[in-house]
Amino acid sequence: MTEFPDILIRVLRQAERVAALTGAGVSQESGLRTFRDAQTGLWAQYKPEDLASPEAFARDPKLVWDWYAMRREKVRGVEPNAGHYALVEMEKRVSQFTLITQNVDGLHRKAGNRNLLELHGDIQRVRCSECGEYAEAWDENGDMPRCAGCGGMLRPDVVWFGESLPRSELEAAVEAARGCQVFLSVGTSGLVQPAAALPFAARNKGAVVVEVNLEPTPLTAKADFFLQGKSGEVLPELVKMVWG
Ligand code: OAD
Fold first, then answer.
1. For 215-238, what is each residue's pLDDT tens digit?
2. Where does 2-145 have alpha helices with state H?
3. Which of 4, 104, 155, 231 sits in a 20 to 30 Å window from 166, CA-based?
4. Are both 88 and 152 inside the same structural domain?
């Protein structure tokens, strides 16, 4: 059991505006590897950072496509875990709860969160790299799949390194961070901008910052509370302590 300071419980119980930022750690207990875990098998020779970029796609589109096809398949077979469901409970209990995620696996939506900002896109969506049109169907076998309209190469609808985040989502995330009373950072290494700046934006506006992670991160020293452990264990315990 995690020890929760009384003051944290009181602050959360009284909070009317809470924002949470999640990363790959939240999905780890659903069986998905985190982004910076070493890859296995065929993909062990590549770093994810070297596959998730426009340069990688330009160099070898089929390699990038196949990596995402493999990940899409993995995501399809997994379910939300207790950490995801605890965040759904929080949304029910807090009058203004904004969930901001860097994850592209769709598990927060599947769990039932409604006020959700997916900053890095959705791995299940596929769009044309030229005209932007979404594709509903494509052939996974053979050559690079192409857009039925313009013939451009298809790509996952996720944000790659060096690309901009969807503007309205990012603006809403910054607004939620600046306006909240409590900001939770859960299962993220806090290494990728601009998401990594959100807890600091919240802190600068006076929010209480709470971090849940297996290990310390660059945020830990600045957080008001660091709850070390698995999000699938810590978050349900926290919800129970605060809201019963
Ligand atoms: P990372 O893989 O960088 O970090 C995962 C974090 O989760 C680490 O700090 C782990 O200690 C922590 N962790 C692992 N298992 C956990 C658990 N069960 N409970 C709590 N914490 C746990 O993933 P992200 O921070 O999400 O972006 O990475 C951010 C972005 O970097 C990704 O969205 C991706 C990548 O570039 C894009 O693809 C654009």
1. 999 999 999 999 999 999 999 999
2. 6-14, 25-28, 48-51, 54-59, 61-76, 82-93, 107-111
3. 231
4. no
